[in-house]
Amino acid sequence: MAEAQFPRTLLLATDGLQDSALALDAALDLASRAGADLHVVHVWQAPPPFAPVGMVPVVVEDQSSEVESAARNLLEKEVEKVRSRGVTSVHPHLLSGRPAEEILSVARQIEADLIIIGSRGKSGLERLMMGSTSEEVVHHAHVPVLVLRGGADVWPPHKVVVGDDFSEEAERAAEIAAAIAKLLGCGLELITAYPTPVHPRRHPEVLSELLQSLQESSSQRSENLRGKFQVEVKPVVEAGDPAEVLLRHSDRDGEPTLVVVGARGLGAVQRMLLGSVSTKILRTSRNPVLVCPRPR
């Protein structure tokens, strides 16, 4: 991936709520900095033809036209916000159906290389128990997905942190993180976490060799990113759970931070039983999260 080519086509998914406003800010900023085309999609859902009254469903008046009209007005207002802030290359998409499916369909049609979406403001517990449209988009997207949440000051971030376990997914995530950091004019922290030894004093030489190997690999990866993207990269190697280490560094300075992580493409059952670093971070981070899927 060449940094000059990312992002070229952005897809902003909006529902007009608070975190969608944050997503709009991020999309406008990235589109302006990169000179990228911006597409805006809003998906409305037709109300069911039956409403339960007691134990008997009752036929209700079809309100699809009213819902569609309200959805069209919402999309037009979002597009007007975009144009009023200087981004003229904007393309609206009004669709009906399941939001995640339609968002992903548009992303494929326009060949988006980045999807931007709000998290709908759910708390960490609600996201953990219920999931969300944004999470469904993340888990099925073929391109990186930027999920916005937090207050008005979360964008633009002052630093980017990215997890690195030296996998193919992590390498791609690190390159995308470096490209975003260059675009934003901020620094990048490359975070490598390794399991905390149960008995660190039993074989100190083994631990020392492992730590040295990880530090050398992280330093080499950092140097490659500096050379390719001309950004400041700080390698960090630390013991602990990967998600917890990454979250700790993202919150450490109390400044706006973008968290970037690669996704391994776990199935739904694996995510439910085992979880993944990307899923844990997506559900618990207080900062914007950029999830980069497995290269395809």
Automatic annotation (TrEMBL):
Pfam families: Usp (PF00582)
Gene3D superfamilies, sorted: 3.40.50.12370, HUPs (3.40.50.620)
InterPro entries per record: Rossmann-like_a/b/a_fold, Universal_stress_UspA, UspA
UspA domain boundaries: 8-149, 158-293
CDD domains: USP_At3g01520-like (cd23659)
Family, as annotated: Belongs to the universal stress protein A family.
Protein name stated in the entry: UspA domain protein
Organism: Thermobaculum terrenum (strain ATCC BAA-798 / CCMEE 7001 / YNP1)
